[in-house]
Specification:
The protein contains 29 helices and no strands. By secondary structure, the protein is an all-alpha fold. It has three domains: 316 residues, no CATH class; 175 residues, Putative aromatic acid exporter, C-terminal domain (Four Helix Bundle (Hemerythrin (Met), subunit A)); 171 residues, no CATH class. It is elongated, with a radius of gyration of 30 Å.
């Protein structure tokens, strides 16, 4: 990247970056001024809180502020309880503190967004208050109240300034949700149109949409907050995204059917062409605000066209008997019709998300992936960091040891639940060093020259404003987060005294050592291992796939889709811009497992409707039974699926009942996908062997 472009965020910032930096700089200075006017003992913590809760959108900031207050209260109560139970037992004190922080970090792994932040915050807030009261345990309650006051003040200043800068927030939030759903619907529709046209690069491009869908699902939660009082528009938006995910998965199943079944001649080519025209026009029709009923009306005609070719009705004796086309053509028409039905659900939910529906009680939540091993590792890492810093303090009797422990707890808490904390803590250390440099310049050059708050902010404000600009720039956001949070603490401005060289050095040294300790712990103690995570994801997916085939358990499509989208998105995020062959194989395998699972659910639903004859049910039940208990040789259930396809084809030739015939065609449609995916991904599905780079190379040979 050219040097001029590298620094463009500073000399040519975007309007959004200027607005973010200006809004939070004013809020931080206002919080500092009020804290100093109130004669609080550590007013700089109010400033730090503003930058801690500052986010790119108002919804994110409000959500984080809300959960920060909750986490602070929990952490303050825990700190008071810690001193109450272990006032004179340092070993038990630090063991319990480490256990509390580890427990908070572990539980936080199972929740999302800023609910996770609240849990880790309750852990390191307890550590900060406890370390602040070590030399004055009798006043731990007042210290806890004081710390909570700083945080509440910072949150209120940031929220108040956000309201000043927010214009037409509710209208913009609703429009943002509409635009996000339009983007998801449009991208998936275009991808499916490309699949129907047999575009060669479509599957790889389409699978990247899962990460986009998961990101949009999180953003909708924050947009709901910006809406203010609202109904269940957010639930409908999440339901629309889930429908889009199912639609995209059906698209991959459609690609498998197109590859396995004959369709070069016959009516399907014409029906597919009609569907492609509709799918490619959907984006312009949604953005052009065409009435939804008009769009759904045309979609219903396409669905009816698919049904007529799959199993036509004969309405009277005078009408000629419609000759059924080849089985492959009818299977493709059934699959396309079901795909368009899912598109209809997505469009209906999209429409419901754009306006308030009186009396609506709809609720929807997309389930995410949970990794118990990762939660345990997160908790153990945080415990190790706390115990390590406590040991250093006990051995060295460092006067700034309490600050060292507090900052280490804060940094480890912030990064404990990140998927790859090694990268995060390293970037945070760089931002910490920049905060020391900026804090040193302010402390030794500018602060001695100013005697009033008004003059002080003339130097302090620009330093924070630059940090705000860097926070919006993606390349510098991680380091800027550390800079904005820690730079005010380096200055340590108070009403009645200033930092001297020794105090600044000790404070800066404690902070830098804390960041270094966090990097050391995350690099050496249970470090993040992408291969281990991939193996865990694979094991969980395969276990759930086998459980999905159990004939006595009701299938859960929503949970299956949500968990596997989350896993797929994790693999994409960890793959980077140039995925290794092993990562590509895992992405393909994850997609295959999700597709097999969805078609297994559809087979279960087909059996539950009880329209199939016994001779058709038996091979399907046998397939599901073999899939449930097979761990290695998946060519066996694949052969059973192939035999089931032959059996259902034979029954279709002699069946006269329309409903039964349509169900047989549906069964063939699902079985074909399961058969081909089991064969194509046998190595990934084999649970008796680890799926590593060596396995991939052996498979390619």
């Amino acid at each position: 990247m050219p040097r001029r472009e590298k620094w463009a965020w500073l000399y040519a910032p975007s309007p959004q970056a200027v607005e973010f930096a200006l809004r939070n700089t004013i809020a931080a200075l206002l919080a500092l001024g009020i804290a100093m006017w109130m004669e609080l003992d550590s007013p700089i913590w109010a400033t730090m809180t503003v930058w801690a809760v500052a986010q790119g959108t108002r919804g994110e900031s409000l959500s984080k502020a809300r959960w920060r207050i909750v986490g602070t209260v929990i952490g303050a109560v825990a700190a008071i309880g810690l001193f109450t139970v272990f006032p004179q037992q340092p070993l038990l004190f630090f063991l319990t503190l480490a256990l509390w922080m580890g427990l908070c970090a572990g539980i936080a792994t199972f929740v999302s967004n800023f609910r996770s932040y609240a849990l880790v915050l309750s852990g390191y807030t307890c550590a900060i208050i406890a370390m602040g009261a070590v030399y004055d345990p009798e006043n731990v309650f007042m210290i806890a109240v004081s710390r909570s006051t700083y945080i509440a003040l910072g949150v209120l200043c940031e929220a108040g300034m956000g309201l000043v800068f927010a214009t037409s927030q509710e209208r913009h939030a609703r429009q943002a949700v509409r635009n996000k759903l339009q983007t998801a619907l449009s991208l998936v529709s275009l991808s499916i149109a490309d699949i129907l046209s047999d575009a060669a690069t479509t599957p790889r491009k389409a699978r990247e949409l899962f990460a986009t869908i998961l990101r949009l699902n999180s953003e909708i939660e924050f947009a709901e907050i910006e809406m203010g009082p609202h109904g269940h528009e957010g639930d409908h938006a999440r339901a629309a995204l889930a429908a889009v995910s199912i639609l995209l998965s059906r698209g991959f199943g459609m690609a498998a059917r197109l590859a396995a079944l004959a369709h070069s001649h016959g009516s399907f080519r014409e029906t597919s062409h009609h569907a492609q025209i509709f799918l490619r026009s959907l984006e312009s029709r949604l953005t052009g605000r065409e009435p939804i009923q008009s769009i759904l009306g045309e979609l219903h005609l396409l669905i009816e066209e698919c049904r007529i070719h799959a199993a036509p009705f004969v309405r009277s004796d005078q009408e000629p008997v419609v000759e059924l086309g080849p089985v492959d053509e009818r299977v493709l028409h059934v699959a396309l019709g079901e795909l368009l039905n899912d598109l209809e659900i997505a469009i209906i939910e999209y429409d419901a998300s754009t306006h308030l529906i009186p009396g609506d009680r709809f609720h929807f939540k997309l389930q995410s992936h949970h990794d118990p091993r990762n939660a345990i590792n997160n908790g153990l890492r945080v415990m190790a960091a706390v115990l390590f810093t406590a040991l250093v303090w006990e051995v060295t009797a460092w006067p700034n040891g309490t600050g060292f422990i507090s900052m280490t707890a804060l940094i480890c808490g912030l990064f404990a639940t990140q998927e790859n904390p090694v990268l995060g803590t390293t970037t945070f250390l760089k931002g910490t060093l920049w905060s020391v440099v900026a804090g040193g310049i302010l402390t030794f050059i500018f602060v001695p020259k100013f005697d009033t708050y008004e003059m002080f902010i003339m130097a302090f404000g620009p330093a924070m404003f630059i940090g705000g600009l860097a926070r919006v720039n993606a390349a510098t956001a991680g380091a800027a987060a550390a800079y904005g949070l820690l730079m005010p603490s380096m200055v340590g401005v108070q009403n009645h005294h200033r930092l001297d060289e020794i105090a600044f050095y000790n404070g800066a040294m404690a902070t830098v050592m804390a960041a270094s300790a966090a990097v050391l712990v995350f690099h050496t103690f249970l470090p993040f291992n992408p291969q281990s995570e991939r193996l865990r994801l694979r094991r969980q997916m395969l276990d759930e796939l086998r459980a999905l085939c159990h004939l006595r358990k009701a299938p859960e499509t929503r949970q299956w889709i949500g968990r596997n989208i989350d896993r797929f998105a994790r693999l994409i995020r960890h793959a980077g811009p140039s995925p290794l062959p092993i990562v590509e194989s895992y992405l393909q395998g994850t997609l295959a497992v999700m597709t097999i699972g969805l078609n297994a659910i559809r087979l279960r639903t087909l059996l539950d409707r009880e329209h199939l004859p016994v001779t058709a049910r038996r091979p399907i039940e046998l397939l599901l039974d073999r899939m449930e208990y097979t761990r290695d040789r998946h060519d066996r259930p694949a052969r059973i699926a192939a035999a089931a396809v032959r059996r259902l084809r034979a029954l279709d030739r002699t069946e006269t009942d329309l409903v039964t015939r349509l169900e047989l065609i549906r069964g063939i449609s699902y079985l074909v996908v399961i058969r081909d995916e089991l064969v194509a991904n046998a190595a990934f599905l084999d649970e008796t062997h680890k799926f590593t780079s060596h396995t991939v190379l052996e498979t390619l040979r």
